[in-house]
Amino acid sequence: MKIGLKKKEKVAAGLVIGTRCVKLVCLEHGIDAYRLRFFGIEELHADAILAGEVRDRDGVIRAVRSLIDRSGLPIKEVIVSLSGNEVLSEIVNIESVFEGKEDEIVRTEAERVNPFDFDIGSVTLDYKTLEADPESDQLRVLRIAARNEVIYNKYMDILSGAQLRPAILDVDFCALMNVFSLNYDAQSFQTTALLNIGVESTSIIFLGNGAFHLTRELPLGVEAFVKEIQREQKVKVEEAERVLREAIDTDLEQEALAGPIERVGEDLAKEIEIARSFFLSATSYESMDTMFLSGGGALIPGMTDLLGKLAGTSVKILNPLIAIKYDYGLFGDQPPEKISPLLTLAIGLALRRM
To answer: Cα(321)–Cα(304) distance, rounded to whole angstroms?
Structure first.
């Protein structure tokens, strides 16, 4: 007879270094389930990170270290991700006869036909084999490139300063797809758009029958709503931010904000339509079934209804906690659905197995 000892559950930590805040999510990876062990958000000064450049290194490191200490967990490694324009991606097709040699082919092709307009020696290349097309006998491979200076100057330097090591360097859109696939039956949607509405921009990922096809970075985010409120109400940016945050916290569609939200929402819908048209023209799909929203902008009152009306499709807020166990006490007096959209990317990172 064997005496079995209970295996210690593995905890993975997903860390998102954003423009205005740092987020940490710690997930316990069980045999057949995930459990949320900790989450935290630390605000950054408005000029701590500008246009992706870290201006207040010490302040960002303090925020990261504060979250690690608050977690009470022995975290030494974290999973981080590249976001937005920090990473470039494209789909390449290779003959299936070369399956198993994707690494060599992806790198050779990147040197021969450089779509990124980089010095290949100055970037880190990676790839993910998505699927095989039995009709064309080809493999669809997602090729990803990131500048080494971004990886080392922003991520490695900050983590080192916070006494942490990177376990995995992921990309935002992959983390978002991981969350969606865990919590929803991705293949039940013929076409899906996943939107993460951040501070400076909005990431949009298009899926066909659950498979990745395209990602784009749209130049509008929560900051655009703040600026429009500031312009209309003739107030300082801090007051405009306070007004919008109050509307989000109370979930009330304030009449004074209806104009600014609708105008920026219309601009965002136009950007979405351009990206959607490109996606549909590049595939055999004819329409967009559903859009799922995440990020702080998803919580702007009336956003789902507004984008649904303008885009002519079903729009929902992505719930990243459907398939994850958690104690309600972690959220204090806040309903989980008011916090979880802010944690979507960090949850997607923490889903990775180290």
So the answer is: 19
- What pLDDT score was predicted for residue 9? 62
Non-local (6+) Cβ contacts of 246 within 8 A are: none
Q: Look at residue 66 in the predicted model and tell me its pLDDT.
A: 97
Residue 40: left (phi > 0), alpha (psi -120 to 50), or beta? Answer: beta
Q: Contact, 179 vs 344, CB < 8 A?
A: yes
Which SS3 state, helix, strand or coil, does residue 87 take? strand
| One-letter identity of residue 16 | V
The kind and range of the H/E element at 124 are strand 123-133
- In this prediction, the residues of the chain whose per-residue pLDDT falls under 70 are 1-9, 84-85, 92, 95-122, 131-137, 251-253, 354
- Angle at alpha carbon of residue 314, lines to 311 and 320, rounded to 5°: 115
In this predicted structure, what is the pLDDT of residue 346? 97
- Of 83, 72, 138, 82, nearest to 105 by C-alpha is 138
Please give the C-alpha separations between residue 128 and each of 15, 146, 197, in angstroms, as whole numbers: 22, 15, 25
Q: In terms of DSSP H, where are the helices of the chain?
A: 57-71, 102-112, 148-150, 157-161, 172-183, 222-233, 237-250, 255-282, 303-311, 336-350
Q: How far apart are the first and last CA of the chain?
A: 32
Domains and CATH numbers, the chain: 86-147 (3.30.1490.300), 185-319 (3.30.420.40)
- pLDDT for the residue numbered 2: 38
What sign does the CA torsion over 131, 103, 150, 117 have?
Answer: negative
- Burial zone of 207 (CB within 10 Å; 0-12 exposed, 13-18 middle, 19+ buried): buried
**pLDDT at residue number 6:** 44
Q: What is the distance between the alpha carbons of residues 226 and 204, in angstroms, rounded to a whole number? A: 21
The DSSP symbol for 151 reads: I
Q: What is the pLDDT of residue 5?
A: 40
For the CA atoms of the chain, what is the radius of gyration? 21
